[in-house]
Amino acid sequence: MQKWLFLAVAIVSEVIATSALKSSDGFSRLWPSLLVVTGYASAFYFLSLTLKFIPVAVAYAIWSGAGVALIALISWLVFGESLDTPAIIGLLLIIAGVTVLNVFSRTVSH
């Protein structure tokens, strides 16, 4: 259970940092820039803790896949960016891939 909590914190930290990256305006705004640096530092720290329990390929696939899907959702909801049909299909395929890893792969329980 702890490994999934570490991974969830890593994902949320990365999503917060990436979301703040747009607001940092090329690191010219202090508070969003500090949020970016803190968020990425936290993301990598918790990802490193996750790697004590989950193989790197699986952890990274889940971390990056969930991050991509969440960032796409945030960019649509918060920043008003559009997602066309191919983008939505691609995101659904990423989510399907992460689901297959978690449900069917014996590597995850290693």
Explain the overall architecture:
With 110 residues, the chain is an all-alpha fold. The chain has one domain. The protein has helices at 2-23, 30-50, 56-77, 85-104. The chain is flat, with a radius of gyration of 15 Å. It starts with a helix and ends in a 6-residue tail after the last helix. This is QacE family quaternary ammonium compound efflux SMR transporter. One of its GO terms (molecular function) is choline transmembrane transporter activity. The chain crosses the membrane at residues 33-51, 58-79, 85-104. Belongs to the drug/metabolite transporter (DMT) superfamily. Small multidrug resistance (SMR) (TC 2.A.7.1) family. One of its GO terms (biological process) is xenobiotic detoxification by transmembrane export across the plasma membrane.
Which helices and strands appear, and what pairs or packs with what?
Blueprint: H1 2-23, H2 30-50, H3 56-77, H4 85-104
Family: Belongs to the drug/metabolite transporter (DMT) superfamily. Small multidrug resistance (SMR) (TC 2.A.7.1) family.
Main location: membrane
Pfam family, one: Multi_Drug_Res
Order of helices and strands: HHHH
Number of helices: 4
The rough form would be described as: flat
Largest sheet: none
Strand content is under 5%
- Approximately how much helix is present in the residues? over 70%
Overall pLDDT confidence: 92
**Structural class, judged by helices and strands?**
mainly alpha
